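Hey, quick one: can you model this chain's 3D structure?
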Amino acid sequence: MCLAVPGRVLDIEERDGTRMASVDFGGVVKEVCLEYLPDLRVGEYAIVHVGFALQRLDEESARQTLELFAELGMLQEEFGDAWEMAAAEAGMDPRALPSEGAPAAQAAVAEMAVAQAAVEEVRDR
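Sure thing. Here's the predicted structure for all 125 residues.
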């Protein structure tokens, strides 16, 4: 699922002629394009979808929405580590994944997927 999530602008800079910002989404910071909201300032909130700030939002509405998304687990779904989520879905403990990052985690998840496919193939016979 791809959500439009409220976030608070932490800083703004111009990169290659494009206005960009670091935006805090309840503890997760991402880079966001501000071209649709050229007058957005540091400290203000905006609704962001697929990396673009689309609409200014008041702080209280942003806070309430972020709390609701967090309660529903939607922030983890939107911003969580894809390899950790795949490992969890494969029945692995995501904390047991190697700390080297994506390549090692990817290999572990791939091994689990191959094993699961083999089990399903045998079961289908």
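One thing worth noting: Strands lie at 5-15, 18-25, 28-33, 45-49, 52-57.
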